[in-house]
Every structure is written in C-alpha cells, then in structure tokens.
Amino acid sequence: MSDGSFLVRVADTNARMMLPAGADVGADVPMTVVAAQPRPLLQVGTEPAQSPVVHTQTGAPTSSAATLLSKAPLTPREQLPQLDRNTPQPTLSPAARAIATALTQAYTAPGAPVIILGKTPLAGPGTPVPEQLGKQLQNALGESGLFYESHVAEWAAGKRPLQDLAREPQMQRHAEAQMRQSPAESAARALAGPDLSASQMINQQLHTQEQGKVQWHGEAWPGQPMQWEVRRDERDERSQRDAREGHEDAPVWRSGVKFRFPLLGKVAANVTMVGDQVHVQVQSDDDTTTETLRAWAGMLQGALDAAGAPLTSLSIGTTEGPVDAQ
C-alpha cells in the first residue's frame, strides 16, 4: 500500500499490517501469536517451523495460533471507528463487572505453584498402613476439584459413581447453593459479591494444566508435616534411555515428598516412573541418616517387588544443601 503497509491474510482473514523491511509480495512471514484477547497481538518470529505463518496472498494456516485468530478476526484499519476526546467512555454491564472483579481478586501470578492444603492428616495415630496411606494420597489429589470436569465425563460414561463427585468442592458448592432457598439468604449472597472460590478453582486448574504439576501440603499423620509434589515432566537423559529400551510413548511422572523427622532429620524421596520403570532417589542432610536408610534399602526393594513395581534404580545419598522435594 502507499503508506508502506501490506494486505495480508491471517487465518483466512484479510487485514492491513506493517511488516518488516524487505518483505515481498507473495512471501510467507513467520509470526508469533502473543495474545488473542482483547485483540490479536502478533510479533515477528524467527523460527518458521515453530511459528504460525502470515500469507501475503493465498493459503490457509493450520496451526493452533491460526485457529485462535480465526475466532478473533482482525479488523481492517479503515473500518475501525474514529476516536477523539468527545468519544464517550465505554461501560461494562453488571455481569461483566462481576466477572472482572472475580477474576482480578482470584488472580494468581504466572508460574506460582498450585498448592492444595490438607485439612486433616492422611493417616491416624500409630504406624501407617501403606495401602490406606496410598488411598488417602490418591484422594488428596483426586477429590481436590482440579480434575472435576474429567471426573464428570467419567461419571457420564458410567465409569465413576456419583458419590465420588459429591466429595469434590464444585459439587459441594452446588449442594450448599441448593440449600439456600429463603429470599433473605439469596439477597445476602448477592450483596456479598461474586463467588471467588469458583474463580480461584478455575485459576488453579489452568495453572495445573499449564505447569503439569501440583503440590500438597499437610500432615502425613498427626504432628508430622509433609510436602508432596506430583508432576508430568519432559524426558531427561535417563528417561530418554528408557525410551530407547521400549517406552517411547510412556509419559514421565515424578512424585516427590519432603519430611522433617524427629530422629532422622530432613529427608526427601523422589520417584520417577517411565512406563513400568521405577527410579527412586532418597536424600538426607545427615550422613548417619543416609547410612540408616541404606541399611533398609533391601526391605524397600522387596516391598516394591511384592507390589508389582520392581525397582529399576535406587540412589540414597547425602546432600550438602537443603533437602528439597524435586
């Protein structure tokens, strides 16, 4: 165009856009989608193989970025309304204001870990029963509400009973809302503003999906704090070796716990699973504790063999720095 802009095609939508110097008619320009809302924002990319492509004549991108753009089409500049100092300020509807308030107050900074706080100990006093403790660990994540929608799909397919859903926060909030029948209670709830718990849960679900990990903080048994993290991870050098041994499609799962015991001190245990391969790494901050743990390594190996998950590797060592769950 005469002003130096180009007529480009992005996700089957024509728009005028300024392109880098040297762009030619008919060329494909790699772009990176920075944001789709409140309006599409593109940045010039440098890796065409990993970026959506802007076509200056014909062709339809098939990337997920192009799909996003097709849902929020670009508006040609000449069709945009004229704005000046006399243009009235935009206003939001009451529903939009309520949604904005809820999302703002429930906002969590990107990268912040998703932490589930355990309200009760996983096991009672005395020696924990491994089977019961394992079930409580499963329930701690499964009934947290982070996976509620997938559980609803399983219930609809007849794979999960309704009473399982009743233990999750979303179903419990729904049951509580059904009990508020009086006009006075409904009015009081409306005056209290939007329900932030739902927004916070959605925010946690999005962060869990993005990060692929979740943390649980609580008590393993009364008086014994425990930090637990589960994550789906990228393949490292060891898991790549496992892939070459026949586990190409197996996901990499990592589970780590961190304790501070009265006699053993700080102990962290990390389990990595790749298919049927089980790798265990145990660390402490005390040499005596390390030797004690090594003395019981045979019992750990025998227990895992009996459970049908034989050890592929076991590492027990002392760390010079703080013991952290990985």
Automatic annotation (TrEMBL):
Gene3D superfamilies: 3.30.750.140. The keyword Protein biosynthesis does not apply. It holds the Pfam family Flg_hook. Residues 46-91, 171-191, 220-249 are annotated as: Disordered. Residues 229-249 have a biased composition (Basic and acidic residues). Keywords: Cell projection, Cilium, Flagellum. Residues 247-322 form the Flagellar hook-length control protein-like C-terminal domain. This is Flagellar hook-length control protein FliK.
